[in-house]
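Changelog excerpt

This revision adds worked examples to the README so contributors can see how folded entries look when concatenated. The first example is reproduced verbatim below.
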Amino acid sequence: MKVCGIDSSLENRKALADELGYTGSAEDSAAMNVWLHSRCYASLRRAAALCRRISKTDEIDWKSLEA
């Protein structure tokens, strides 16, 4: 969450887990953190795969997007 600039307080982690459909106990913060971690990395992998597909099909000047 910190990488994305999101407050990673327990309250916010519980809210994110609830929003993403976590069904375990919110009181077991260790299990919830592992679940959130795996969900975030799965989302990053999907986004990276989408970027790779787009870059293969469209001519994108990636250098122009660097900040």
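The second example, added in the same revision:
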Amino acid sequence: MPLPPTPAGLRLDEDDGVVTLTLDRPEKLNALDAEMVEGLADVFEGLHDDGAARPVLVVGEGRATCAGMDRAIVSGDYAGEHADLDATVQRVYELVETYPAPVAVAARGALVGMGFLFATASDLLFVAEETRLAVPEISYGIVSDYGTTRLPELVGRRVAVEFLLTGDPIDPDRAASVGLVNAVVAPEEVEATARARLERIAEHDPSAVAGVLERIGR
């Protein structure tokens, strides 16, 4: 089945039953602008609609997976000036959470802000040893609606409060110890590790995989 159209700043490929979604704005460390956010929503809506339920691997071109939302967007009055964009951001998280096949993120360099929260919406997260993980929205005066609900579900209230209210970088090994990360591996191994897990899952009946994901909850 053909892949959905790919908007600017994103690439889609398929190999061995796994769809690879690449954030492709390396000159900005794959910081997400409005067009890329809308593109993510369009891509996942297309993947939902095509009914093939193919596992998705999310990676970033260049030296960082995602530096978060473009600073030009978050440095102003985000809530007042970008309400429509924020609604699309929330829609992206919902589409990832409800996708009927596993979504994995393979991160290196940096996974920050919306990139990090996108990864919490996904099913699997593999990070390179040097990856900078952070939710710095508080530093911009932004209350992350998704982060305040999702992170406590994953790591508990106390750890979520620490991460969300400091905005400080999270060491990958600590992230793994509290259940945010599946594995911390060498940078040259992170994408292959994530892909191998998805290819293993793709060997199983898609309806059974979807049923497990639905019953586990996200």
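Reviewer comment on example two: Residues 34-50 form the longest helix (17 residues). The mean pLDDT is 94.
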